[in-house]
Amino acid sequence: MTTSDDEYDGEGGAPEPQLLLWSVFLAEATQSFKSAGFENPEIDARRIVERASGFEGSEFPRGLEEPATEKAVRHFGDMVQRRLNEEPLQYVCGVWGFRSLDLMVDNRVLIPRPETEVVVGVAIEELEKCLVGGRKLVADLGTGSGAIGLSIAVETENTEVVLTDISPDALQVARANLAGLGSLGTRVTIHQGSWFEALPEEYRRSFSLIVSNPPYVSSGEVDTLPANVKKWEPHQALVSGKKGTEFLEIVVDEAGEWLCQSGSLVLEMAPHHTSEISERMQEKGYTEVQIFEDLTDRRRGVRGIWNS
Questions:
Q1: CA 138 to chain centroid
Q2: Which residues, 6 or more positions from 50, have their beta carbon under 8 angstroms from its beta carbon?
Q3: Exposure of 240 in the CB half-sphere (CA atoms within 13 A)
Q4: At 122, is the secondary structure helix, strand, or coil?
Q5: Strand 207-212 relative to strand 136-141: parallel, antiparallel, unpaired?
Q6: Strand-pair partners of 48
Q7: pLDDT digit string (tens) for 153-210?
Q8: φ/ψ bin of 80: left (φ > 0), alpha (ψ from -120 to 50), beta (otherwise)
Q9: N or C: which end of the chain has fewer CB within 10 A?
Q10: Closest Cα partner for 110 from 185, 215, 40?
């Protein structure tokens, strides 16, 4: 791309193209998103320019005064068009922050959300209460991008984390994110399969913590989901069944066979499922069962300790 006031090379030859600054492209993207009626056009534009330019965080203001290369401009243009087609910003950028991690995300996995960051915090609290000495074993069932389990691996010591998912596509994303952990990734293993069927038999009654953010949208609630969620995020990772609690019930009912004495179960779910699942956990023999809230003070999940 060139400006309208190209400069000559001083030797009578053809003019040398003058590359535009990233500030020009930021303004262009912002205006495009405003015209399209986006809710946060400035944020969308900034994130796309950050990704295309490579100038992120504190380097962004300085990067705006740098010229954009032709290759980067092509990438920028592609991302802007994808966003104008209403693809979620997280998928457009391809990388999204989750707690301390920058996770690869695309439409093979759910977009990591702030409420799930709270679930990780609760899970770590439970893990710290565990009475088992030495290395602690953790399972993240239905891991998707690996957001929960990989965060636990990074933020705790003496833990071994097992990630499972029924989707081979999701596990490709999880493996890519695992590779980004470097040496910390040596404490993480991945198994494909449906819930506890994915786990090796030798892990029975060995887990200090089982955590999961399973699909919990009922089939009747699908039409109430935001349009971009229905169109772009994987249906398999969203919808459980007619009730919305089918997978939550499987985890609650079977986790006792895999948790060690005083091991913890932490589950994310819809606010209207928390009372039912809390009661079910108590009926199955869990103690200290508590409903916890997310950052918006909505009921977001249930935790409990296995003592049967």
A1: 18
A2: 56, 57, 60, 63
A3: 22
A4: helix
A5: parallel
A6: none
A7: 999 999 999 999 999 999 999 999 999 999 989 999 999 999 999 999 999 999 999 9
A8: alpha
A9: C
A10: 215
